Amino acid sequence: MSIHVDLDLVALVAAVVGLGVGAQFLAAKYRVPSVLFLIAAGVTVGPEGLGIITTDTFGAALSTIVGVSVAIIVFEGSFRLDFETVSDAPRAVWWLITVGAATTFVGTALTVRFLLGPSWDISLLVAALLVATGPTVITPILAVVPVREAVATTLETEGIVNDVTAAILAIVLFKAMTARELAPRGYVVLFAERLGMGIATGLVIAAVVWVLLTRVDLPAEASPQTARLLTLAAAVVAFAIADSVFSEAGIAAAATAGFVLGNLDLPHRESILQFKRDVTLLVLSFVFIALAALLEFSELVALGVSGLAVVAVLTIVLRPLVVFASTAGGGFSSRERLFLSFVGPRGIIPASVATLFAIRLRTGSPPTDPAGADVLLGTVFLVILVTVVVEAGFAGQIAAALGVTRSDDRE
Asked: How many domains in the chain?
């Protein structure tokens, strides 16, 4: 019996991977972001479609699979961030990841609280998760929409940094929400612990990998493969070590290790980069399909018109407000500022962390806040679904209409 179950699970994983590769193929052929096909595939095999994947399919292992996958994705994104490019990037980047992120957090919390009516705890939790735009969605968009380098760097840097800080902030808020005994100073301590642990772990792992690749003599025929595997291991090991000490510190560790290694003079850099891209596409496909398969339309429908109003405020009011304020005098044309305003899709980290929180709120002993869990999961998934379908799906058309693609660049 156990052999049969294992074979079924292997077949299921193979099917998900096959669907993911198929989605990437269609995305490349039709030059649209792959996340659209990935979500469609996930919904098709999920409980709202064929029912092949349910919440019990992967069980408790899903959060671990998602965590490791996100570490690989974030590592690859930060590996491609050049220090000189980031340091020379328009000041808009720094405004977006500081004042812009804070404004988005506060604005989202107020919007959710007054339009949907959950507790302040749930409203703040939703807001923390939705601060992150996320490289998991931005990267596929930029792969098919060739915008000016400054625009691409701004979107990528915002996504990676906000992914890290938003995940840590959400964990801190959830811990405070469930513990009910955290002093105001405790929030800062918890945040600093996780961010500091992540950065320190990432630096150490990056240093170890650099020494192994540059100071140890390897046979010429084995050197490229070893370099690729060591950098992949760096992402997973950095994540695992930091996350075992403080939950969600692993994301910061993977991002730090990726950024440091990406800016060192590593041997076989191009080979490493191509390998990481391939692995990232694979895990991105798997995780997006697996999480989309857990989507239940009843949770979205329950939000009603108020849920759609929340999405509208976040995308049509709050995002443009934050972008235009952050990019004032930053060297962007008005059309590029509009494009940045239209491209703010949320990705895997909000979906995965929201799923984890919802499970804990529903299955606690006694359940902490089942109704709040429904609002949390429904709101986060609704924002993800709408922003991915609209903003990612039409990013190419929006860029073309605004004339901000590289071929249309007037500068």
From this structure: 1
208's torsion region: left (phi>0), alpha (psi -120 to 50) or beta? alpha
Q: Do the domain assignments include residue 42?
A: no
Angstrom distance (rounded) from CA 396 to CA 146: 9
d(CA 261, CA 338): 34
Question: Would you say residue 54 lies in a domain?
Answer: no
pLDDT in tens, 210-258: 999 998 888 888 888 999 999 999 999 999 999 898 876 888 899 899 9
**Within a domain: 265:** yes
Could you count the other beta carbons within 10 Å of the beta carbon of residue 94? 17
Residues 6+ apart with CB under 8 A from 323: 96, 100, 337, 340, 341, 344
Domain with residue 373: its CATH number is 1.20.1530.20
Q: What is the pLDDT of residues 321-347, one digit of tens each?
A: 999 998 887 788 899 999 999 988 887
Domain-embedded: residue 17: no
CA neighbor of 257 nearest in space, from 240, 244, 274? 240
pLDDT at 148 over 60: yes
> In degrees rounded to 5, what are phi and psi of residue 86?
-70, -45
Burial class (CB in 10 A: 0-12, 13-18, 19+), 45: buried
